[in-house]
Amino acid sequence: MCGILGVVATSPVNQLLYDGLLVLQHRGQDAAGIATAEKDRFFMHKGPGLVRDVFRTRNMRALAGNWGIGHVRYPTAGSAFNLAEAQPFYVNSPFGLLLAHNGNLTNSEALKREMFLSDRRHINTNSDSEVLLNVLAHELEDAASGLRLDEAAIFRAVAGVHRRCQGAYAAVVMIAGYGLLAFRDPYGIRPLVIGKNELPNGTNEWLVASESVALDTLGFKLLRDLAPGEAVLVDTEGNFRSRECASKTVNAPCMFEYVYLARPDSIMDGVSVYEARLKMGEFLAEKMKRTMPRAGIDVVIPIPDSSRPSAQEMALRLGLPYREGFVKNRYIGRTFIMPGQSLRKKSVRQKLNTIHQEFRGKSVLLVDDSIVRGTTSKEIINMAREAGAARVYMASAAPPVRYANVYGIDMPTRSELIANDRDETEVCREIGADGLLYQSLDDLRVSVRAINPALQSFETSCFDGCYITGDITAEYLSGVENQGNDEDFGIATEIGGGGAQLDLNLIDQEER
């Protein structure tokens, strides 16, 4: 899970990209980067940490130009500790390209070998995003007529990327001397939306982002989601083109976006994330009436923040009081996306504190968006008991997470998942709850489909083990698990820091 932005405007975009990345900060906290272009140069600054810490005034001043891309990183391939893997990535052959990517390629190792042996390209990091960039660069070289790039050649190159790359990917790319390219994988697993800002003089500005909330905040009107396999191209003059570039597509957005990853004020694939979470609470309440009618619950309390809509709807449907029992420290990152298990466990009590009077002597129902590793759930249940709760029940708006996610979410090993090889009773005992209620997968699908009936497929592999791309084998999952157990603490020199200017070998204007 990462956050990406791409913009073509009529005025400097450095502040626009910075503000957009702040809105998408929930999608990645390990690194941030911005690249812009003016005339014949790219300008880039990237580094480890939160957006507010990576960029200083001097960095922002160095990011000149009216078009650019941005990225917030949460690593699922490569290392959280390797600063060289901060994005965007850059190549200068055969054309100057900068790429920011959200997702995960499932055949990146095969592509690395293929590019070295056949394409004569060297990959400098362990990041699959660098692999994606080099595949695109090679396909552009094959599609171009000499040194000339045109719209048709760029779309042919994206079609080549779709033929070669497997897995999940949404990407924004700056093409030197041409403009902004954005594309989405043929299954539409990772989100990507496009918006427009119509200026009084009749010109248009364009913004592509992982979530619609970035468009809202920056004053752009949401047009639509990019379709699976689609590419859009906006040249530096603001001319917009789009084309379906994949021969076979299935619209199967990642279900975990609706459960947890996305902000509630986003709209993704025609679905209001907030409304979907309300529906999840509705179905969960009905299941509780059927399966736990005599629990004797006094109050419903959400585990902030993603579960609030579901908890509110549960309380309403069950006729129970809804109360805030936990206060969240806004200066602690999301525990789910912290790189180490020990750091994740330690941060739970730093992140949340109890309001004791809401627990003392009561039978409480805690509602969470999901239970992944169980670390947070166990700590929170202990906190509720320490605050005086007589009984503590737990409800999850998502089904049990039993399988690895290979499409860009940090669920790399089944051994880390508390529901792996455990039934509901065993998970309940493991986290120390008096009762546990999981959403059914069918009800979860209906919750989202109720908002947009056109959505017939979803990527739900972490719940059911069915990998929609059809290329995931037991050997692949075993390799991912072994890789996940070998954490890389290597230090690398940051590339492109300090607002470095990257010279472009542009052809003369007359030759274009």
What does this structure look like?
- With 512 residues, the chain is of the alpha+beta class.
- It has two domains: 3-250, Aminohydrolase, N-terminal nucleophile (Ntn) domain (Glutamine Phosphoribosylpyrophosphate, subunit 1, domain 1); 258-467, Rossmann fold.
- 31% of the residues lie in helices and 23% in strands.
- The chain contains 16 helices and 22 strands.
- It has an eight-stranded antiparallel sheet with strand order 11-9-10-1-4-2-3-22. Strands 5-6-7-8-12-13 form a six-stranded antiparallel sheet.
- A hairpin with a 5-residue loop joins strand 9 and strand 10.
- Helix 1 packs across helix 7 (212-218), helix 5 crosses helix 6 (151-164) and helix 11 (341-351) runs parallel beside helix 12.
- The longest helix is centred in the middle third of the chain and has 19 residues, at 273-291.
- The protein is globular.
- Residues 486-512 have low confidence and may be disordered.
